[in-house]
């Protein structure tokens, strides 16, 4: 009986390691205000570790394939991660968080299997990659585009002037109407330059043919 308790306490070490590693990974995500933070990553890591311990040690002398349980952990966590991914406006959100949860499950599985060096090493690599990729360096930054709606009068080459002002190659959409003697363009374009309200006011002041400008990149 005592030996059984000692063995189970030994197995519990893997779960305890998973708690620490899941907490560390989740803490890095919390610092960046992501959807899944400390609690989610810790629970995922602990749950994966627990299921791995059960699949590896719970059946005693019974012949059981622990790899089948491990495979179910991978697919199950993938389903959980898919629920985090959202499409908002023109962008996909939550992909990195979902991938992080999936990788955290792997860390928990390694801890539950008693591969502590692998589990710790993988956690350090995960956190290091996240930190490096958030360094303020163009090499690691994804180019961001802003969506702008512009209404302007077009009499000659004003449309080309608008593209030049906002560093856009083309209009995403264009609606043309008549306003008395003038042709009015209602255009939508994408630009990789972020314009402040002051800058937009200056553009409108310097280019009186522009009737209105509206930022709508969060739509």
Quick take:
It contains 7 helices and 6 strands. The protein has 219 residues and is of the alpha+beta class.
Describe this structure in words.
This protein is α+β, with helices and mostly antiparallel strands and 219 residues long. Helices cover 55% and strands 17% of the residues. A four-stranded antiparallel beta sheet has the order 4-5-3-6. The chain has a two-stranded antiparallel ribbon with strand order 1-2. The longest helix has 30 residues. It is rod-shaped.
Protein traits:
219 residues, alpha+beta, four-stranded antiparallel sheet, 17% strand
What is the strand and helix layout of this fold?
Blueprint: H1 2-31, H2 38-57, H3 66-82, E1 86-88, E2 91-93, H4 95-112, H5 116-133, E3 146-154, H6 158-165, E4 173-179, E5 182-191, H7 197-206, E6 210-215
Antiparallel strand pairs: 1-2, 3-5, 3-6, 4-5
């Amino acid at each position: 009986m005592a030996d059984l308790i000692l063995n189970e306490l030994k197995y519990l070490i893997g779960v305890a390691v998973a708690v620490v590693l899941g907490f560390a990974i989740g803490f890095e995500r919390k610092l960046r205000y992501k959807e899944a933070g400390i609690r989610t990553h810790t629970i995922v890591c602990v749950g994966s570790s627990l299921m791995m311990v059960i699949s590896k040690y719970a059946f005693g002398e019974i012949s059981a394939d622990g790899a089948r349980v491990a495979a179910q952990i991978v697919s199950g966590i993938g389903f959980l991660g898919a629920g985090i991914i959202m499409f908002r406006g023109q962008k996909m959100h939550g992909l990195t968080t979902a991938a992080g949860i999936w990788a955290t499950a792997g860390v928990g599985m390694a801890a539950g299997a008693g591969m502590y060096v692998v589990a710790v090493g993988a956690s350090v690599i995960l956190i290091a990659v996240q930190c490096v990729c958030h360094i303020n360096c163009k090499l690691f930054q994804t180019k961001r585009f802003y969506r702008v709606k512009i209404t302007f009068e077009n009499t000659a080459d004003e449309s080309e002037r608008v593209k030049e002002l906002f560093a856009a190659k083309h209009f995403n959409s264009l609606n043309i109407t008549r306003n008395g003697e003038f042709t009015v363009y209602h255009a939508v374009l994408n630009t990789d330059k972020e314009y402040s309200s002051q800058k937009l006011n200056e553009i409108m002041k310097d280019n009186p043919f522009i009737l209105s400008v509206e930022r709508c990149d969060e739509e």
